[in-house]
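Supplementary Methods. Inverse-folding protocol.

Structures were first reduced to a discrete structure-token string of length 442. This string, shown here, constituted the complete conditioning input.
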């Protein structure tokens, strides 16, 4: 698929991309694009007016830059020494006679180890790092690893939650001495806090993952994570930890109720949200995939349209396989979506809310979070049981399963594996099958 040329802006005789203007002005590229395309600002103002303090991303911790390698300095003993601090503890490593080839070679090796791990190499003396120091290094790795499109993924928050449990119990213990018994204590602590079984199992994996990463960095012996992996996960019905109720497909009647009650004071905005919900129900894609749709991403040449995504939850798998996620769009969804695609400028998102008043100029791109809040608020106003937009994906899977009685067909319809389609999305198809058989034969 050919790459779309980047958007450029010309000001004061300089033509550059949004990313280039961000580097020149310090104003985020997304802010510049919103000012010019959505708010109607002149280019000069968009590129010169500072971002208001209340809109600055001061509450978000930026991805930290790799720590610089500490220099080698002469020691009173005549040797070269490198000192660095982690978690308030000072570490040192001696490189050999100061000024010798041996010291230069040892320091070069130290620099390569530092660059390869993006964290300080493990001290060679004492009992090694404490758990609190390991957590500090591991979270540095997490902030660099779990990133997509330059933004942190939700896994970062899950990793931090698991590390808080580990830190609360064993922050002052040597990392190399962490045992399966210690991991079971962490599990029991989460059970006593009333956390759900699946959440506890996910955090158990994350703690094990932390020590697995540490073993790869030569911080703990390899047998530490190997022994932790043998700790049994909590099984349903065999633990005090509760199980969260399965997510059910939203009822068609509840969907229609929300469509009727959405944004009653602003019909032009209500029409956008109603079409968004209808297309979502007919396609069964993930909310984030639908909200990111742009006109050029939809191939309308065939009888069935194809929406191709190069960025979604399995992006790294796509990069490895060099393939896009393809979502098929049938005639009923085409009838709703077609006018929206025609009315959307190239490069803009299809699902945008127009200004509330006639004098407004700002269009609001609908994100997955904003979409969920609208649905929740309308459910409360309409007096129906609240549901989440992701339940429309369950609705699509259940409808296809009832119609075709085939896991493979359901998986193809929602773009997932047959196992996930059967266990997560399709609800209880055997109930519908039993009812049909009873109706036709009984």
């Amino acid at each position: 698929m050919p790459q779309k040329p980047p958007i450029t802006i010309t000001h004061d005789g300089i033509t550059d991309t949004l990313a280039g203007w961000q580097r020149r002005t310090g104003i985020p590229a997304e802010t510049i694009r919103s000012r010019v395309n959505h708010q109607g600002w002149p280019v000069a103002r968009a590129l010169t007016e500072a971002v208001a303090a209340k809109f600055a991303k001061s509450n978000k911790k930026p991805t930290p830059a790799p720590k610089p390698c500490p220099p080698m300095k002469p020691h009173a003993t005549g040797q070269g020494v490198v000192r660095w601090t982690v978690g308030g503890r000072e570490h040192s490593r001696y490189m050999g006679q100061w000024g010798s080839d041996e010291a230069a070679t040892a320091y070069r090796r130290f620099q390569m180890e530092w660059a390869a791990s993006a964290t300080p190499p493990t001290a060679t003396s004492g009992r090694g790092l404490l758990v609190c120091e390991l957590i500090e290094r591991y979270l540095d790795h997490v902030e660099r690893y779990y990133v997509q499109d330059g933004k942190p993924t939700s896994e970062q928050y899950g990793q931090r939650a698991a590390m808080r449990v580990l830190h609360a119990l064993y922050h002052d213990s040597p990392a190399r001495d962490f045992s399966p018994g210690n991991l079971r204590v962490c599990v029991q602590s989460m059970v006593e806090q009333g956390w759900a079984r699946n959440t506890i199992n996910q955090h158990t994996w994350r703690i094990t993952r932390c020590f697995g990463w540490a073993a790869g960095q030569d911080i703990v012996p390899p047998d530490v994570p190997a022994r932790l992996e043998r700790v049994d996960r909590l099984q349903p019905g065999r633990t005090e930890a509760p199980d969260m109720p399965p997510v059910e497909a939203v009822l068609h009647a509840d969907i229609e109720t929300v469509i009727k009650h959405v944004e009653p004071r602003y019909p032009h905005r209500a029409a956008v949200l109603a079409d968004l919900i209808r297309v979502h129900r007919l396609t069964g894609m993930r909310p984030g995939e639908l909200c990111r749709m742009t006109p050029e991403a939809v191939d309308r040449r065939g009888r069935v349209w194809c929406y191709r995504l190069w960025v979604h939850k399995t992006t790294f798998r796509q990069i490895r396989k060099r393939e896009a996620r393809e979502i098929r769009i049938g005639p009923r969804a085409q009838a709703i979506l077609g006018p929206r695609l025609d009315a959307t400028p190239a490069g803009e998102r299809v699902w945008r809310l127009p200004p509330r008043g006639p004098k407004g100029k700002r269009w609001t791109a609908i994100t997955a979070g904003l979409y969920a809040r609208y649905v929740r608020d309308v459910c409360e106003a309409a007096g129906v049981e609240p549901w989440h937009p992701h339940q429309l994906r369950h609705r699509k899977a259940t409808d296809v399963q009832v119609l075709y009685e085939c896991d493979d067909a359901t998986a193809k319809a929602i773009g997932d594996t047959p196992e996930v389609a059967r266990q997560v999305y399709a609800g209880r198809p055997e109930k519908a099958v039993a009812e049909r058989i009873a109706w036709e034969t009984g």
